[in-house]
Amino acid sequence: MYSSAYGVLASLGRTAPALALSKGDCTALAPLVTPWLARGISPDRIRLTLTTGLPTPVHHPAAFVRKRLESKLPAQASTAGAEGPAAPASPPRAECYECGAPGPPTAFTEGRCRACRPYTAAPVHTPTLTPAEVHAHAARIREESRL
């Protein structure tokens, strides 16, 4: 299972280039992936959890991955089996790295929710008129206002 954990970490750079880890980082972090695999979480699901909603930029990939592995480890499933069938998997969620608002990963741009992204208005097309056109337009308005 340790080599599987190493493989998950080594593949992060292909999924999210900002999370490319060195051989030493993968070796050091592999023990944190092992509990995820022991709980039956697929490598794809682990990669998704680690790469969804990344802030821009990620300054320290190894520290970021360590924090996510420690803080997002799912609870151990009960072995009693008396609860009935397992609930369907919920869609992946992400959080805004500025305000912490939850939402689907597609709602975030560069790790920010809509409220935290800087407002960028679409450029407004303003027609350019020559001085003669402005004078003619003003004359038309004056003439129409006399009626």
How are the elements arranged and paired?
Blueprint: H1 2-10, H2 12-15, H3 23-38, H4 43-51, H5 61-71, E1 94-95, E2 102-103, H6 131-146
Antiparallel strand pairs: 1-2
Characteristic key phrases:
147 residues; two-stranded antiparallel ribbon; 2 strands
3D architecture notes:
The protein has 147 residues and is mostly helical. It has a domain at 1-74. The chain is 44% helix and 3% strand. The protein has 6 helices and 2 strands. The chain has a two-stranded antiparallel ribbon. Strand 1 (94-95) and strand 2 (102-103) form a beta hairpin. Helix 1 crosses helix 3 and helix 1 packs across helix 4. The protein is elongated, with a radius of gyration of 27 Å. The mean pLDDT is 83.
Structural class: mainly alpha
Low-pLDDT segments, ≥5 res: none
Query: For the residues shown, what is the average pLDDT?
Result: 83
How many strand elements? 2
H/E series: HHHHHEEH
- Most strands sheet: 2 strands, antiparallel
Distance between the termini: 89 Å
Shape: elongated
Note the total helix count: 6
- How many whole angstroms does the radius of gyration measure? 27 Å
Assign a percent range to the helix content.
40-55%
Q: Quote the beta fraction.
A: under 5%
Give, in spatial order, the strands making up the sheet with the most strands: 1-2
Provide a concise account of the structure shown.
The chain has 147 residues and is mostly helical. It has helices spanning 2-10, 12-15, 23-38, 43-51, 61-71, 131-146, and strands at residues 94-95, 102-103.
